[in-house]
Amino acid sequence: MSDPTTYQTIAVLGGGSWGTALALAACRAGRTVRQWARDAETVAAINEHNTNPKYLPGITWAEHITATTDLEEAVKGADAILLVTPAQTTAVVLEQIKPWVTKGTPLVLCAKGIEASTGRLLSEVVDESLPDAIACALSGPSFAVDVAKGLPTAVTIASENALVADHLSEALASASFRPYATDDLIGVEVGGALKNVLAIACGAAVGYGLGASAQAALTARGFAELSRLGAALGARKETLTGLSGLGDLVLTCSSEQSRNFAFGLSIGRGTDPQSLVAPGQKLAEGAHSARIAVSLAAKHGVDMPIAAAVAEVVTGKLSIEKALSDLMTRPLKREAH
């Protein structure tokens, strides 16, 4: 086992529920944590009252997090950085922190998405925008509230540098938070990004009143789509069937705690999708990843009818009624095809 102090000082960039939950997980693992948030009120609440009422209402903690609105204060000298900002802002944030990131620093991507404007995986954004950093990813079946409360949670931490993944897993592990290391970075990213898209479909089916059987069918067929595209992009089967793939998909496709499932649920109940992606609404990463996922599938000759339906519904090109009808009346074929 490696020296547990390899990554002693952790910078967590993001003041939302997931950023705060991961900051707490790092504290419980014995790390020194500096958390950056844009909102001065959130920073004050974390520093003065050990709470984040805007994003984790009703939860307080005993652990000490040093919160700040100053990016330099959070990032400079950190041994590892957890990037917990929205996937579509990754390139912007990387540009902002570039002056203070030293060569070889792990940058752990904790949002799950694909850059909508370019089709790049977020690790590719890191490699191109901040080549001195080591791109990593943290993903798995986890809700921020559970992690913040210290409930048992298992995740995957990925880096193409296997030793870095091992060291990060050891640095963040505690009695309630168990990371498993892998060097299949692509597999972890693909699973995390695509499950959000598929969760929208499951939420929409439930919201429309199609029942638990349809929800289960969409989850299973969605996993088949995820697996096909993952394989085409170079992901390993064991990663896609693991925590960051199937594990995360099952959780996200079955609970209103998931923003993407809740997003789909609202659409299924008749809410205009465009109103749900308006500024100020809770972020559902799958709404941004759907279109580019379909484009990647077409590029690699992969059939993804569920993801395609989500992309059409989210952009207002297809009604929820027509999308669900089309999925249920597709030509019959053998299940494995």
Summarize the structure in words:
The chain is an alpha/beta fold and 337 residues long. It folds into two domains: 175 residues, Rossmann fold; 136 residues, N-(1-d-carboxylethyl)-l-norvaline Dehydrogenase, domain 2 (Orthogonal Bundle). The chain is 50% helix and 12% strand. The protein is built from 16 helices and eight strands. An eight-stranded mixed beta sheet has the order 3-2-1-4-5-6-7-8, sandwiched between helices. Strand 7, helix 7 and strand 8 form a beta-alpha-beta unit. The longest helix has 23 residues. It is globular, with a radius of gyration of 19 Å.
Order of neighbouring strands in the sheet with most strands: 3-2-1-4-5-6-7-8
What's the count of strands?
8
CATH H-level homologous superfamily name of the largest domain: NAD(P)-binding Rossmann-like Domain
Query: What's the overall geometry?
Result: globular
Name of the top-level CATH class of the largest domain: Alpha Beta
**Helicity, in percent?**
40-55%
Structural class: alpha/beta
Oligomer classification:
single chain
The overall number of domains is 2
CATH architecture of the largest domain: 3-Layer(aba) Sandwich
What's the story with the biggest beta sheet? 8 strands, mixed
Mean pLDDT score, rounded? 93
Order of helices and strands: EHEHEHEHEHEHEHEHHHHHHHHH
Termini Cα gap: 43 Å
CATH fold annotation of the largest domain:
Rossmann fold
* Low-confidence parts: none
Q: How many individual helices?
A: 16
